[in-house]
Amino acid sequence: MKDYEISHIFTEEELLRLWNSIDKERDRLMFRLMYHLALRPSEVVEIDVRDINFTEKKIRIFVRKKGRRTAEEKKRGIKRKPVPIDKPITDEWLLDNLKFYVADKQRGLLFPSRKKTKDGKEKPLTVTQVEQLFNKYCIKVFGEPDFGEIIAKSNYKSKREKFKKRWNPHLLRHARAIHLLDKGVSVENIRRILAHTDLKVTQIYLNKTLEDIRQELLQKEGKIMPYEKGRWR
After folding, report:
1. Is 106 in contact with 49 (CB distance < 8 Å)?
2. Using one digit for the tens of pLDDT, what is the confidence trace for 23-81?
């Protein structure tokens, strides 16, 4: 398993400043939804209006399967298709604004590009466009990042160097996971929200928080007194 470095953890106050700075309704709703449901850019660009169930307050997300195909799958020509996962929407503000945003729209992309095809049909946002938008809004509020984005420590690191100084929307997933942990949500439920198949992957997201807790305890409690004969351990 690859080792990941979490470059920045947004506080809830920072995210509130970010939401308030986004004047375009589509972008504000998109990033708030990404945070609330811990979505990847590749997932949010594919959401259709029909994927939202306002009555049951849930939204269907299609998560792409990762990993290489087996020899048998290749032989049979099987492609790894996205897996549908229902996620609950618990933010009433978000739910109400999504209702107003889609209005009478019955179908089509939830967050389409402002550009259309030659025949006038909706054009989806690309993952790159979502990343660029997020970076732009973050720079507006927080300035240029003084850290690298989440970078896999592997032999391919040099190929990702050009992305090193960007605010990456993937950080919203990290922030959501950590904020839920702080609120007492179980690691297993956080794993389900993140749509991780392996609990070990979820733990990577939370390791930095555990280290922060340790540092805070050391600062507030002081150093642990060494054991001396006749004293309690």
Report:
1. yes
2. 999 999 999 999 999 999 999 999 999 999 999 999 999 887 665 556 665 566 666 66
Mean pLDDT value of segment 134-142 = 94
Q: How far apart are CA 9 and CA 140, in angstroms?
A: 18
Which whole-number Å values give the CA distances from 87 to 82, 137, 146, in the listed order?
15, 26, 34
The residues near 43 (Cβ < 8 Å, ≥ 6 apart) are 61, 62, 63, 64
Instruction: Decide if 85 contacts 51 (C-beta within 8 A).
Output: no
Exposure string of 18-38, with b = 16+ CB inside 10 Å and e = fewer, is: bbeebeeebbbbbbbbbbbbb
CATH 1.10.443.10 fits 12-221, yes or no: yes
Between CA 88 and CA 182 the distance in angstroms is 19
85, 113 contact by CB (below 8 A):
no
pLDDT, one tens digit per residue, over 52-63 is 999 999 999 988
**Contacts for 165 with CB less than 8 Å, ≥ 6 apart:** 144, 145, 148, 149
Asked if 127 and 45 count as a contact pair (C-beta separation under 8 A), the reply is: yes
pLDDT digits 0-9 by tens, 159-180: 444 445 789 998 998 889 888 8
For the chain, the average pLDDT equals: 78
- 143 in Cβ contact with 18 (< 8 Å): no
Distance CA 231, CA 39 (A): 52
For 124, phi then psi, to 5°, come to -75, 150
